[in-house]
Amino acid sequence: MQLLPGPVRRFAAWCAVILLASGVGYVAIRLCVEFRTAVTPALLALLGTALLRPLHARLVRAHVQRSLAAGLTCVAVLAVVGAAVYIVVSALVETGDQIVASLRDAAKGVADHFGAAGTSLDDVASNARELLGRFGGTAASGVLTGISVVGEMLAMAVLALLLVFFFLRDSDRAVSTVRALAPPGAADTVEAMSRRAFGAVEGFMRGTTLIALIDALCITVGLLVLRVPGAVGLGALVFVGAYIPYLGAFISGAVAVLVALADRGFVIALWALGVVLAVQVLEGHVLQPMIQSRTVQMHPAVVLLALTAGASVAGILGMLLAVPLTAAAFGVVHELQGRYGASDATGPASGPAAGPEPSSGSGDS
User: Fold this and answer.
1) How is 41-81 classified by DSSP, letter by letter?
2) pLDDT digit string (tens) for 282-306?
């Protein structure tokens, strides 16, 4: 190695570090995928804790016992989520037939104009019995698989809710636990990194929730004014999609415009598109700078890469978790930069500043 030039040795050292970090990261991701039934509820519970901690802290400041405050917070979450699900389901049930009929009419029109012979909806309906008989076994297995997936999701949701309760109740012990697990001499640094990472996730969850609520309300009002069927359900879709930056807003807005096109025609669809674009402009130029100005700011390219990586690892759930986890990683990096950058900046200055100290000490003595 001594025969190699200095730049080559540094390049080799960096390559070794990158390969080692990549290997450790790959093994960690594979382990998380293998133990996803335990890892996913824990991550979701951390996100929920970051979002609900202010409510729990307010109850504790009101002299409510910590366990009772955590239980009340979880009950409040269940009540809000249950009410939201009830509103969305009732809205979709009331207008679902109308939405399906409008989409069917739009598909029939497309098939009449662009479809080849034997591909119309009537032909498909006439062959439905044969298709069901041919693929009945596959459909039955698919139904069983879907039931198992739903059961797994419900189990993870219950586990995540229980973890939120314990995380909120024992949040006062988090600092001492982190310091106890930290290596000797690095407790302060680990605590600072943990606080910075959790603060980034907390800011992301609060800001995204508030922005999602404003977007959903604005788009729902616009769709109600345009008399688009299922406006409340589409607004709920916008609210959920806001937790997936860029892609979520695009998909939910596209669905709203398509429903408006299928039921109300081309002109109303243009108006719906205008409402969606206006809300997105409001979000990008007003809401994001105002609400999330204190959180970790990430370049859109980094967000898109994080979404792509999350989708490749865990699908939609990975897309939901990718951005807050990336925000936490950026928070840790910024904390390390602030600490070691400050030490490097003060290092050269400490030499001259330390010069007068012996003379002053000798004068005092």
Assistant:
1) HHHHHHHHHHHHHHHHHHHHHTT--HHHHHHHHHHHHHHHH
2) 887 777 777 766 566 677 778 788 8
